[in-house]
User: Fold these one by one.
Assistant:
Number 1:
Amino acid sequence: MAFSTPQIAILGAGPGGLTLARLLEVKRIDYVVYERDDSANAFDNQGGSLDIHHDDGQLALKEAGLFDKFKSLARYDGQAFKAVDKDLNVIWDMPYTGQEGRPEIDRKELRRMLAESIPPQKIRWNAKVQSLEREIDGCIVVKFSDGSVAKGFKLVVGADGAWSKARSLVTSERPEYSGICYFRATISPANPIYHRVCKQVGTGMYLAVTGGKQVVAMRMGDASYVVYAGVPRPEHWSKDNANFFQSSRFREHLVAHDFAGWNSEITDLLTYSDDEQWHCWPLYSLPMTFKGWKSVSGITLIGDAAHLSFTNGEGVNHALFDGFQLANAIEKFGLDSLDDAIEAYEKKMIPRGLESLKEGEEAKRRFFGEDSPQQLKAWVASMPTEGV
Ligand SMILES: Cc1cc2nc3c(=O)[nH]c(=O)nc-3n(C[C@H](O)[C@H](O)[C@H](O)COP(=O)(O)OP(=O)(O)OC[C@H]3O[C@@H](n4cnc5c(N)ncnc54)[C@H](O)[C@@H]3O)c2cc1C
C-alpha cells in the first residue's frame, strides 16, 4: 500500500506534540508524528504529576474533545498544598475544598490519553530525530539516527522538548544550566514510613524550602509519593559522580551535606525513600536574553522547544495551549497558507513564551533564593485571600 506524505510533520510525542496531533485529527488535517520513545508507556521522564490549568491546558483538552476523559483521570484533591520552612513553620496551607481550577494528572496518564486519541499509524515510535536541514529548494529534510530521512512536508513542527533539534532552524539560542538539580525518589505504599507520609503530605503537594534548597513530596495516581530534593550542583554532577550517585551512600550524603539542621520529618522523606536508584534532573532554561525569532518558512516550535523556562508550574499548560493555538491557526489559514498560519501563531506564542521565561526566573528566586522562605512568605502575603 502506498501512503502519500502528510503535509505536516510533528517532531515529538510529548504533551505539546500530541495535543497538536489530536486537534489536527479532530479538524481532519493530515499529519505524522515522529517520536524517539518506543511507545507511549516509555518511562515518564519529566515530572511526576502535572497540574492542568482551567485557562489554558484545560481549554486545549476541551477543544480536543478529551475533557471528560481527563476529568476521569484527574485528581482534584491533588490541589491541596502545604509549604513549610526547614523548622516546619507553616508558610502556606491550602487544603482541598472542592477547587476545580488546577487538578493534577500523572504525566504518563496524560500522555497515554493523548496518544490513544489518535490513530496508531499516525505516530512513528522509535524515530529519533538527529538533525534537520534545509535543502537548496527550501524543503526541510528530517534526518533520523537510524540513517533514514523524511521530507516533502509543507510544515515541520518542533515539539521535541528542551533539547529540540528543530530549534536550530529558527534560532541559535541554546538552553543554559540553572545551577539547580532535582534528585527524585519514590515512597510506595509498601514503604515502612508510608502511613506517616500520608498524614504529612496528604492528597496533594508538600514543599519545604530554606536557603536555596527544597524538598518536595507529591502524591501520584497509584497512591505512591514522588519525592524531590532540589539542590545546587555543578551541571554534570550526576555523570561526573556516577558511581557515588548510584551507591547507597548518596542519600546519606544528600541529607548530611544539603539538609543538615532540617527537621527530621522533612529529611526522613529522603532518608527512608524506597531502596531504588535515584534520578537526576538538571534544570535548564533558554537565556533571559532570548527574544524569540522572526518567522521562518515551513517550520515552527511549540512547548519547551519554543520557550523552555525554569520550572514554574506552567510548562505543560503552555505546551498544550501552543498546540491548541497552532491548530487553530492552521485551520484558519489553510494548508496553502501555512506560512501565514506560522506568523499568526508565533505573534501570540512568542510574547507568552518570553513571559514564561520571566516567570521561571521569578520562581527560581522565590523557591531557590538564599532567602527563599522570606521570598515565598512575601509572595503568599501579596496574594488576594480568595486566590490562596
Ligand atoms: C523535574 C520536572 C518537573 C516538572 N514539573 C512540572 C509541573 O509540575 N507542571 C508543569 O506545568 N510543568 C512541569 N515541568 C515541565 C513540563 O514537563 C514541560 O514543560 C512539558 O512536558 C513540555 O511539554 P513538551 O511537549 O513541549 O515537551 P516534552 O514533554 O519534553 O516532550 C518532548 C517529546 O519529544 C520527544 N523527543 C525529544 N527529542 C527527540 C528527538 N530527537 N527525536 C524524536 N523525539 C524526541 C521526547 O521523547 C518527548 O516525548 C517539569 C519539568 C521537569 C524537568
Number 2:
Amino acid sequence: MSSNPSINLFTWLTANGIKVSITLEELSIPYQVTEVEISTNAQKEPWFIKINPNGRIPAILDDGQRVFESGAILLYLADKYDSEGKISYQFGTSEYYEQLSWIMFQVGGVGPMQGQANHFRLMAGEYSQYAIDRYMAETRRLYSVLNERLGASPWLAGNKYTIADICNYGWVRYGPIALGIDLDDFPHLKRWHDAIHGRTAVQRGLNVPRVVPDEQLRERYRLMEEKTTALQS
Ligand SMILES: N[C@@H](CCC(=O)N[C@@H](CS)C(=O)NCC(=O)O)C(=O)O
C-alpha cells in the first residue's frame, strides 16, 4: 500500500456497490462504510450530492478526495493502493489497456443495459413487453461477448484476475438472482463467475453494507417481478 488510507465508502447492496467493497477487501484496505439507502432516496440528499453530484451510489471519500462512478473508483484504488499489481495491471502496458477496455465495456454497456432490464422487469410503473425483451436480449448479448472473451482468456484482461473482472462480476452476479438468467447458457462466463464468487475477499465484499442471503435477494426480486407482471393489460 503506497499511502495511509482513510476511506469512507458510501454504498448500498447493489451491483455497482459491491464492486467497490470487493476491491477494498481484495486490497485489504481499511475503510468505513456509510449506508446510503437508495429505496428512501438518501442518494438525492444535499449532503450526498456534494460527494456525488449525480446522486447515485457508490462513492468514496479518501482523506477529503471524493471519487464517484464505480469505474473511476476502481481505477483510483488501483492507482493509489495497488502498486504491487495484486489486482491490476501497470499503467501503459498492453494489459492495462485491455483492463481499461473491459471496465468501460461494463460501465458503458452491461451496467446500463442490465439496469434497464432490471427497471422494466422489476420496477416499472407500467408493463412493457417490448422494453423487457429488448433489454433482456441486449444483456444476454453482452454476456455472450464476455463468454467469448473468457473462452479465449482465463480473465478479462489476460492471465491475471483484475479490477476488470471485479467490475463485470458485480453485474453478472445479479443476472441469475434478479433476472433469472441461467449462467449454464454461458459456460466460460459461469466458470469465471464461480471462480470469483469463491474468493474470500469477494464473499466479504458481498456483505457490505449488510448481509442479505441470496435466497432473500431472489425472493425480493421475484416479488418485484410479480408486481410488475400484474400490470399487464
Ligand atoms: N454509472 C454509475 C451508476 C451508479 C448507479 O446507477 N447506482 C445505482 C445503484 S446500483 C443507484 O444509485 N441508483 C439510485 C438512483 O438511480 O437514484 C456507476 O457505475 O457508479
